[in-house]
Amino acid sequence: MFPQQLTDSRVFEIAKALLDGFDRHYKIFSETSAQSKRRFEQADWHGQQLAQRARIEFYDMRVDEAVERLERDFNASKLPMEVWHQIKLFYIGLLTGHYQPELAETFFNSVTIQILHRKYYRNDFIFVRPAVSTEYIDDEEGKPTFRAFYPTKDNLRDTLKAVVESYELTVPFDDLDRDVDLIYGVLMEQVGNVRLRTNFQIQVLSSLFFRNKGAYIVGKVVNGFRSLPFAIPILHNSKSRLYIDAALFGEDDLLALFSFARAYFMVDMKVPSAYVQFLRSLMPRKPRGEIYSAIGLQKHGKNLFYRDFLFHLRHSTDKFRIAPGIKGMVMLVFDLPSYPFVFKVIKDYFPPQKETTREQIMGKYQLVKQHDRVGRMADSLEFTKVAFPRNRFDDELIEELRKFAPSVIEEEGDSLVIKHLYIERRMVPLNIYIQEASASSLEHAVIEYGNAIKDLVAANIFPGDMLWKNFGVTRNGKVVFYDYDEIEYITDCNFRKVPEPRNEEDEMSGEIWYSVGPHDVFPETFGPFLLGDPRVRQIFMKHHADLLDPAYWQERKERIQAGYVHDVFPYDRSRRFIHKIQGKDSAQINAEMAPVEEPVDVRPEGPEVHDQGVLSGFATGGVDAGG
Question: Is 325 within any annotated ligand binding site?
């Protein structure tokens, strides 16, 4: 409904108060992101982790502040709807010329749905579709979104060095010329003897991307109508100097770097839509919502996901069903076959062996949201009061919801409202994958499963329930954990060896004869639950037998308690430059470039190795990203 006249003189003040709330949020968000450069230079890894967690909480804090102000100053929940329509119109006007209009629209939604009754904000009031275009927005006063460099074949190596130096990191490089030579060598493998067109250039985003212990240069090489995406990871070595660890080229490498199973990047950016537009040119297969989430703007990412979901519902006819696989004891999981996500609802009651509560489970999911997911824990989108079309649910699913989660659903006419749910990317459950796997795929899956657990351990996460059904296999063969109701910090667990039987009666007893504390874990007991299949057992014991040894877990726990932050690489270890350095000093250089006490790890050949076809495509007709 378009307002015909101004009926309340306060609408501008209310609209301005809403925008002030968002501007305050983005200012704090940006300052925290900008400080990641200083934390990286100082190797303040714990500070980086704390900032990552705190930044996720900022949005809800600012929303609560805005709601409180609107209620206190304007009695907002009592305003008639025609006034709210006028407020929205004025708000749109205030976004003209704004640098983050799409995020401000999402903030408007977040505030108003807390103030207004659900029947008012379903579709006709909130920003279901964007009202303000984000096309061609750029920072006209500060640094541009990206910088372009125009090398020739003769000075390409010098240009690559200039690209790295343009970020003005205050920590010196150990040997930048050596690292640039390595980048140049990898680039030449992709470019070869291709003819350089008149527009040959290197474009890089103006800000570095920070996550965990790394900083990343992100950009693309443009030649004619084709472009080659790349990312350059920069790390600290054991001498407190910087070095370039690898050169990642091609869309698949970028997709792995920006995976939904990894923590959000910290990026200093005044115009996020311009960054997203650039990143989409590198990863055209990745939805915009996931890119927004990857750069820390997960609330807007969730908003875009919901828009895509509504669009899909309108243009599909299949029905929601109970998700295939073993049913969970805590979560009721359903999916829509035509949509690559699953929907998870916390049940109202659990079997006796699950000593937990709804609040504790929600706390576990929040822990994962705030933690470094190291490529091994799926990101979850949390929604409240979602109205689904009732006729799109099959009868069996409706009965399951009524039986196991009656407090979470409301049936209103043609709608089924779910009061709280999580939405995650759909994967093939690992137990199903193993049942159907060929010999080579089985070996890959079991090795990847062990690697997933070891990566979680490096991130101070104990999965709790390590059964195969709680892990999934992604499109690229990556094994990812997705059942969070029993996760704990490694540092909160007590890893013990099973005591020796005191006598023959203990040895023959089917019951345990020793005391077990609430946080005690006995890794030796994992085997009977995980390794019943002889094929699986043989592979597991060959590559990951250490996971059944309490000493392995205890050693990792002690290192974490001592303050050590493990390196978890978002790319295959074989891509690291330490494998390319030759010469008499190579052993010393490799030792300096390797993380301190880097754990031995097995990375299988096969599906996890990223498809490199796009790389040679730069010379023979590869990705056309609109260069």
Answer: yes
Question: What pLDDT is recorded for position 194?
Answer: 78
Beta strands in 498-542 (DSSP E): 520-521
Burial class (CB in 10 A: 0-12, 13-18, 19+), 588: exposed
pLDDT value at 393 more than 50: yes
113 known member of a binding site: no
Beta-carbon-side half-sphere exposure of residue 593 (alpha carbons within 13 Å): 24
Burial 26-39 (b: 16+ CB within 10 A, else e): bebbbebbebbbeb
3-class DSSP state for residue 481?
A: strand
- Rounded to the nearest angstrom, the gap between the alpha carbon of residue 271 and the centroid of all alpha carbons in its chain is 21
Tell me if 323 is assigned to a ligand binding site.
Answer: yes
Closest Cα to residue 42, out of 234, 232, 239, 240? 240
Polymer length in residues for the chain: 627
Q: What is the pLDDT of residue 612?
A: 28
With H, G, I as helix, E, B as strand and everything else as coil, classify residue 489.
strand
Residue with tokens 């509560």: 357
Catalytic annotation present for 64: no
Q: Are 106 and 45 in contact (CB under 8 A)?
A: no
Q: Are 215 and 231 in contact (CB under 8 A)?
A: no
- pLDDT at 599 > cutoff 50: no
Q: What is residue 98's DSSP assignment?
A: -
CA distance 586 to 420: 55
Which range is least confidently modeled, 145-154, 561-570, 598-607? 598-607
pLDDT tens readout for residues 160-178: 999 999 999 999 999 999 9
348 close to 407: Cβ distance less than 8 angstroms? yes
DSSP 78: G
From the centroid of its chain, how far is CA 487?
A: 18
| pLDDT > 90 fraction of the chain, expressed in percent and rounded | 65
Q: Is 326 annotated as a binding residue?
A: yes
For the chain, what are the domain ranges?
A: 10-116, 146-313, 316-426, 436-562
According to DSSP, the residues that pair with 176 across neighbouring strands are none
Structure-token pair, residue 70: 């609107």
Nearest to 204 by CA among 149, 281, 131: 149
Beta carbons within 10 angstroms of residue 412's beta carbon = 12
| Calpha distance 354→357 (Å, rounded) | 9
Q: How far apart are CA 566 and CA 212, in angstroms?
A: 9
Closest residue by Cα to residue 230 from 203, 269, 199, 268: 203
- List pLDDT tens digits, range 74-126: 999 998 888 888 999 999 999 999 999 999 999 999 999 888 865 544 556 77
DSSP string for residues in 327-372: PPSSEEEEE-TTSSEEEEEE-S---TT----HHHHHHHHHHHHHS-
Tokens representing residue 361 in the block: 């489970």
**What mean pLDDT is reported for the chain?**
87
Q: Give the up-direction half-sphere exposure of residue 400: CA atoms within 13 A in the CB hemisphere.
A: 20
Among the listed residues 379, 455, 483, 485, the single catalytic one is: 379
